[in-house]
């Protein structure tokens, strides 16, 4: 049994491949930089029992050469859960690159709860413009769209205050508490993406989304070589695909491909099927 997993901060897709059959399972996301060993353990405990595992390839948020302690934390928990001889812990960005381009060259981008991008070639990351997270960066991500929505509503630039409070079932005070006093504010803010999509006909909301995607292009894509194909993975990219293509076209980029999950592409990368 070989396991391939793609994990963002909100959800993780696991593929269990036994050589002939592939089973897909979804759990909460794992971000090794943010989550404790106990939280990672709880997520792994939600997976069904499986036979002997020879290898685990996980591409996860919060994992990269810059965070060796986080990588090792996740590797230890995976080893304890599966006992596999081979465990490969890599970044979700590398997973996006391999799923989108295989061993070809291009600009691979993630737009989900968070955002990231890279210039990739031969199945490796050549250059990465720092994402910086939803406080300092993550332009175009679900967390930033949610943050901008809340900002626009309560600063009275988006005329949907009543509809928003009714939809989320919280007061202004509860929203502020969730953002500033509870963990995983990025997930909480990204949870407003369906409301944004439902109200995309509101001119102020539409402009907000286009501006955020334009910021992604200006702050990230502009740092890579011109003329390379640009492709995306992630729920925000998939559900806002039309506006994403429009915003990037306005910035001089053509989007080659948008997929919601890189899991199937990673299975093809590792096993050719």
Automatic annotation (TrEMBL):
Gene3D superfamilies associated with the record: 1.10.720.160, 3.30.420.40
UniProt xrefs under InterPro entries = ATPase_NBD, Euk-type_GlcNAc_Kinase
What is the protein named?
A: ATPase
Instruction: List the PANTHER family.
Output: N-ACETYL-D-GLUCOSAMINE KINASE (PTHR43190)
> Which organism does this record belong to?
Alistipes dispar
